[in-house]
Specification:
The chain is α/β, with parallel strands linked by helices. Helices cover about 40% and strands about 15% of the residues. The longest helix has 21 residues. The radius of gyration is 21 Å and the shape is globular. About 35% of the residues are buried.
């Protein structure tokens, strides 16, 4: 239940009778709310080890999507950071795509994924990516209206698909977080998220090794073991943790460190909802959520030196936790629901019924 699933939950609140189509579903891992809907998987869900290895079936996903029969629907919403928009609605149906990002691994982050892959993957990536890019651009014409989760993503949609997109930021459950008193704030910085190369957790660990300042890292992923090997005595790698532990550390850290470029980035909003400032790389979605020199600071280049400079700057920042909480509230779940409902009503010319 990550950001994409949270968006799906909010869409289900707007459309409580909607059916859900997906390649793979692990019923044990999704929320009770999603389980109340009819969920239908493509043939990929029946393939060996699909729940754990669904990414390996990417070459089959275009064909699987095009086999979905959507003839019974007059509104289709695709929620994607992959190929989901490639479904084929019937001609009278309106197709709205809520795009978290055009596929990163074939577009803006292709070279980064390629460089970090093993030999066999590097051999397969160029022809597969070429095929997927051609298909991806062609299927953009199957979408009537694009909605992007950030202005950053809207720019990518314009560049790769030559389509305009409205921007509606994704829902964040800001009410799940709360600040603590100043006396409860600790002496450590915090990094949260999946530990993968493009998020640059290594940059943060190296910077705090050099600073000899306390850093706590929460999250799992392919870089977990490597980070534990390079972490100095002031860096604590906790790995994946339950929500209560995450919430505790959000509220008590000196600041959140967010070193990667994200499409939107829910983590900085959660930190601000907890009353804490953010040190963020100055590209991507964080530039749309963090207010420079008020709720955080930015660094321009992903280098140890610039991150260290940003840490030193935030130590001097005259920070008011109330400003951070107020800014986070702009991305509340009810704001998303209200804006997306209004968007669909304008697109369809139909007022949607409100459900209790």
């Amino acid at each position: 239940m990550r950001g994409g699933e949270k968006v799906l939950e909010a869409l289900c609140d707007i459309f409580p009778d909607a059916d859900i189509y997906t390649h793979v579903c692990d019923l044990a891992a999704i929320s009770d709310k999603l389980k109340t809907h009819k969920i239908q998987t493509t043939f990929i869900g029946a393939l060996p080890y699909a729940r754990k290895m669904y990414k390996k079936y990417l070459p089959l996903m275009p064909m699987a999507l095009e086999q979905i029969d959507l003839g019974a629907y007059d509104l289709v919403i695709s929620s994607e950071s992959g190929p989901a928009k490639g479904i084929i609605p019937t001609s009278p149906a309106l197709h709205v795509c809520y795009c978290h990002s055009p596929m990163r691994y074939i577009w803006n982050m292709y070279n980064r994924y390629y460089d970090s892959s093993g030999l066999m993957t590097r051999l397969m990536m160029p022809p597969l990516a070429h095929y997927l890019r051609t298909w991806d651009v062609a299927t953009a014409n199957r979408v009537d209206d694009f909605v992007a989760n950030s202005a950053t993503v809207a720019q990518r949609i314009r560049r790769y698909y030559r389509r305009d997109a409205s921007v509606i930021h994704p829902p964040v459950d800001t009410t799940a977080f709360a600040p603590v008193s100043r006396s409860e704030v600790g002496d450590y910085y915090l990094m949260v998220g999946e530990l993968v190369s493009y998020k640059r957790p290594d940059l943060t660990v190296e910077a705090f090794n050099r600073l000899k300042a306390k850093l706590v890292v929460i999250g799992g992923g392919e870089m977990l073991d490597r980070l534990r090997r390079i972490a100095g005595p002031t860096v604590t790698i906790l790995g994946s943790q339950p929500f209560d532990v995450l919430k505790h550390h959000y509220a008590r850290c000196k600041a959140l460190v967010f070193p990667g470029e994200e499409d939107f980035g829910i983590v900085p909003v959660e930190a601000m909802a907890s009353g804490r400032p953010v040190i963020a790389f100055g590209r991507g979605g964080a530039t749309e959520t963090v207010v420079a020199n008020k709720t955080g600071v930015f660094f321009a280049n992903q280098t140890v030196e610039e991150l260290i400079d940003a840490v030193e700057r935030i130590e001097r920042l005259d920070f008011n936790p109330a400003d951070a909480v107020s800014r986070a509230a702009d991305f509340r779940r009810d704001v998303f629901i209200s804006r997306f409902r209004a968007f669909v009503e304008r697109a369809t010319g139909t007022e949607l019924a409100l459900r209790a």
